[in-house]
Amino acid sequence: MQKYSLNVLMAALAVMLLALAHFRIIDNYIQAVLMFVGINIMMSTSLNLVNGNMGEFTCGHAAFMCMGAYTSSVLSVLFFGKNFGPPMFPESMAMIVFPAIILLGGVAASLTSVLVAVPAFKTRDDYLAIITIAVNYMVISAIENMDFIGGSRGFQGMKDTVWAMNDTISFPWMLFWVITFTVFCVWTIRRFITSTYGKGVNAVCQDEVAAEIMSVNTNKIKLVNFMISAGLAGCAGGLFAHIVGYVNPQSFNILKSTEAMVMVYLGGMGSLSGAVISAIVFTGLLEVLRSQALVDAMLSPVTLFFPDWDPSAGVIKWVFIPLLLVLIMQFRPEGIMGNKELSDVFPKLKKYYTFK
Amino acid sequence: MSLLKIDGLTQRFGGLQAVSEFNIEMKGGELMGLIGPNGAGKTTIFNLVSGFYQPTEGTITLDGTPTAGLKPHQVTSLGVARTFQNIRLWHDMTVLDNIRIAQHYRMGYSVWDSVIRGRKYRECEQRILKIAEELLDAMSLTEYAREFPKNLPYGLQRRVEIARAMSIQPKLLLLDEPAAGLNSSDVEGLIKLIRWIHDSFDITILMIEHQMKVVTSLCQWIKVIDFGATIAEGTAEDIQSNPAVIKAYLGDDTI
Ligand SMILES: Nc1ncnc2c1ncn2[C@@H]1O[C@H](COP(=O)(O)OP(=O)(O)OP(=O)(O)O)[C@@H](O)[C@H]1O
Ligand SMILES: [Mg+2]
User: Fold this and answer.
1) Which segments of B52-183 does DSSP mark as H helices, in order?
2) Domain contains A236
3) Where along chain B do its domains lie?
4) Interface probe, candidates B90, B112, B124, chain A, greatest A C-beta count within 10 A
5) How close B174 comes to chain A (CA, Å)?
6) Alpha helices per DSSP H over chain A
């Protein structure tokens, strides 16, 4: 009973959300927010694997999201779109091929991460941080210079695949896939990191020399960890591209990487449940701050004295997020959860669920 | 074939010759001591044997396999385990996890298995857990299995570190100053523990130690080094009366 309670609960929640979306009880906007929550969960949990569990400081996570987004977008257009000539597959196959498209995006991202993993065999800390920023720029500039996929103008046409799925069977497909992949992501990470094999990652974090001498193949475990992390970010990128229907290299710049980092630090380094919670909180906060009315209301005491100032929500957002980060670092540097999981903080929860 | 054979081992760090022309041969089953004043090069020899440094000159052969060019984790998987002069446990993981992770080289399953968690994964994890629990039990550490090493007293941390090394099921165990920082009752316990390990496992032990009481009561053969070179070797009595050793430890009176 307790063994399956969480699975049952999550399945029920997913079915409920899908039903609500299918019968249009929740509108497109709410659906979009839910999907971005999912994508941010994937981004923060996957980055947490490297920055939290392995204790490396990487700040170019968006590079992998970008690789995934572009790879699956191009595949998607090749298979079901019209930009590169007639579609390769019939519409009816879209819903079967779609997960493969997303996974292939993940594979591409995973392979890109070798660019970071190999230097990480030898370097750590600041030096590795610089390398990851460089890789972030490399990926973006490379794509900006590829004219056949739009270069800096961006790339579109992958909505065709989403419509193909919808035409075959009318269903909130994207929401379904985002939920599926989010669960897949969290579940993969959880299983990997709690196996004795995956705990080698924590050993590398805590004492790399001891790990190597105690028979942990540290280079291999770093490579594996980077590849899993990047692969999952790549899947997130592919889904993101299909939700928005348009990708642009600059949507994956250092600012996007920073968002992922903020979520990891907000949640607590090395805490999977922390990463999930912070992704939800963070996405919610971003959405709330997009409301001009709310921003106006919050800033009314200030604008009262400066009537000429007309703050825009889009700009104020980038004041609040860094401010939030400063406040966390000042008052709760260990993040919402520290390095603990939900079941460590509330041991009573253990009676009700196990998560494997 | 001898278990450990070191020939003409030399290690230079820039202009400093930390180890020079060091030789040793351990047939298997011995409990040998390696002593010498501070900075003599003892830890460096351990670092060379465990593959952490590549020697400037000389060869190290383990059970007939030359270790030149091997990474530390590969050397370890040949059956060499060690402890560190200053304890290097993974302090934010439980004692049980510390013991389990050290079995990484014979994990027996891949990353995929860890995610899929099929029968192979379960069997391997069970085997790892069984070895770990038996070892904790044998070394009277079971009650601390769920504790974090950082919360344990120093003496217990030493014990956990030795247990972690033992979980590799080594043929050769290198102990780097196991008695350092222990109080006298802990030292008694440690002597018993090392003797017990040596008697009950098919194991060869090479031990660095400053406390003469530990060395003399445990080691059948002792090697003394100073400035990286061997200055004497023999049984405890031979060593204690050897003028070169006395000079190395107490200094040269004539100056
Ligand atoms: N990585 C290194 N780089 C430069 N010099 C080193 C390095 N490792 C050791 N040394 C030097 O080599 C010499 C031998 O050091 P080592 O640690 O082997 O001594 P030790 O016999 O273990 O001494 P102690 O009893 O103090 O532990 C010392 O002078 C030390 O400073
Ligand atoms: Mg030493």
Assistant:
1) 72-77, 95-101, 111-116, 119-138, 154-166
2) yes
3) 4-88+153-250
4) B90
5) 12
6) 5-22, 28-48, 61-80, 94-112, 114-122, 125-144, 159-168, 173-194, 196-206, 208-213, 218-244, 254-267, 272-289, 292-305, 313-331, 342-345
Name the pTM for this structure. Answer: 0.93
| List of chain A residues whose C-beta atoms are within 8 Å of the C-beta of residue B168 | 214-215
> Is any atom of ligand 1 closer than 6 Å to the C-beta of B44?
yes
Note down the domain range covering A200: 2-253
Tell me: the pLDDT tens digits for A51-70? 999 999 999 999 999 999 99
Q: Of A188, A200, A207, which is closest to B88 when you measure between CB atoms?
A: A207
Model pLDDT for residues A183-220, shown as the tens digit of each residue:
999 999 999 999 999 999 999 999 999 999 999 999 99
Give the CATH number, domain containing residue A222: 1.10.3470
CATH code for the domain defined by B4-88+153-250: 3.40.50.300
Pocket test of ligand 1: the residue of B10, B11, B12, B13 to mutate, having most ligand atoms within 8 Å of its CB, is B13
Nearest C-alpha neighbor of A207 from the set B21, B185, B89, B130: B89
Which residues in chain A (169-228) have CB-CB distances under 8 A to chain B? 188, 191-192, 195-200, 202-203, 206-207, 209-219, 224, 228
Domain count, chain A: 1
Q: Which residues in chain A land under pLDDT 70?
A: 1-2, 353-356
ipTM surpassing 0.85? yes
